[in-house]
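Researcher: We're teaching a course module on how sequence relates to structure. For the next exercise, students receive a sequence and then see the predicted structure as tokens, so they can try to spot secondary structure elements on their own. Here is the exercise chain.
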Amino acid sequence: MTVARFVESLFNEGRVRVGESVGRDGQLRHPTADDLEATKTVLKEFERSYRADLPGNPPSVSDKALIWGAVTTFHASSFLAHRDASEEVIRLALSVPCPEVTSPSVCYSVDLTFRFLPDLVRLARAVSSNDPFVSILASLAHQWPLSSVGIADVGAVDVRSIVDDDCLLQIYTDRIIAAKDHSRLDEPRVRDKIRASIGLHSELAPQLSSYLNTTISQTGTE
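Model: And here is the predicted structure for the students to work with:
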């Protein structure tokens, strides 16, 4: 299966069958130039409709980040489905850095496919929580906090590129509320946004509301 077909199925069906990222020689298979171009077309077509349903004005799109996120998601999904890849090959594929410096545009573009990362981590941990593949996915989760809300044991994350953009901040806090992920409440602007989102209806998110109130009483601030 090509990366383009994988992404198309992921968006349209939510479930995919993914080809192997590793060839018979045990080496990583790299997408062809034609596949990458087709992948970009699929991604940008989906993004045009996706952004219409987002709050406010989403960031611009980074083509390089779009492609990197899609290829990385493809490889991660393949390693989950086909368990015979070596740890060396998995690390090689999933340790390739994003070609763009982190920014709201890059976070938004990568998230188009990385928003499925919590599902990948959940499925990988269900197979074996001690598998090195899980720790590699956890590293990606730490690097991309917008996409990893709800994943346990990610640790402290850098959300500056998220909180500096109104649209991403709303997406981020909406996900925190939906996942009841109180581990993401360290940033003051995130807490303020969640309070504003919950408003007078704290009963809709009782765990987060309780955690916020406890934090305030302990610090004596806000």
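Model: If you want an answer key for the exercise: The radius of gyration is 18 Å. Confidence is low (pLDDT under 50) at residues 216-221.
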